[in-house]
Input
Amino acid sequence: MRNKEKLVRRLLIIVSSLFVVFLTLNRSPVTRGEPQGIPQSIDFEVGRRPEALLFDGGYIWVANQQSDNLMKLRASDGLNMGTFETGTRPVALTYDGIHVWVANKMSNNVMKYLAKDGSLVATIAVGQQPEGLAFDGKDVWVANGGDNSVTKLRLSDGASCTYMVGQRPIGLVYDGANIWVVNNKSDTLTKLRATDGVKLGTYRVGDSPTGIAFDGSNIWVTNFYGNSVTQLRASDGQILNTISVADGPVGVAFGNGYVWVANYGSSSVMQVEPKRGGVINTVKVGKSPASVIFDGTSIWVANGGSNSVSRLIL
Output
């Protein structure tokens, strides 16, 4: 009798184990490095025509282009911590570790705010119609879309230098050694050495390049009229891939191992797997998304046509 009971128990254990294996093998497959479902989206109301976003380590800053102000949202819950007046048409942001910098397109200047309380520190005249900003660890760079130049603001002594680039520079990114400039009307990127502004190369991309991001090895640029995103190797500017996305891609960011593209014309954000170059998720957001950033846990999107920002929880 005892032997029969032992045999029955062993059979039950074997059957249970096989059932667990069966469930494991037959559940929805999840490949390592691929998303486990579409990110959940939460929207927060901001000012009119939010254009640019910035993460300072604890807060999300929003440049509201048609409200002529800057908003500070707590990244953990989207709570508005303050609204601060800017110049006319604030369209770009960067952070130097202490200060938030804002480019005011129609005021032809940049403003410098203390991040901890939003107090205005300085207003600095730059070129015509500044539309892009970047910080290289020492200095702030400004893309002057109206006069085909970039200005380097040296923070150590307040001096500035200006370098000519392509037609309508509107975006900037720093790759650790060089500044990459998006020349919107030339359909090119210009690579400048950050230390002295020497031009290292000019690289043709798609139709009407707009947004730019760096993933640690490669440069990613959105092509607004080309409905695509181009991947270039940062070391030599070699084009590695051109990926079709949706209508009117504008903003681009790298986060959580993926490239995220804001499609202005289709009111969506696409998640791109960078190694294979495929779109693996499409998330509907507000109208006319223009900017996208990553805060370490979530993706944030500025919806210019909805006067809101979306937080995509990953």
Notes: The longest strand covers residues 249-255. Helices lie at 2-26. Residues 1-35 have pLDDT under 50 and may be disordered.
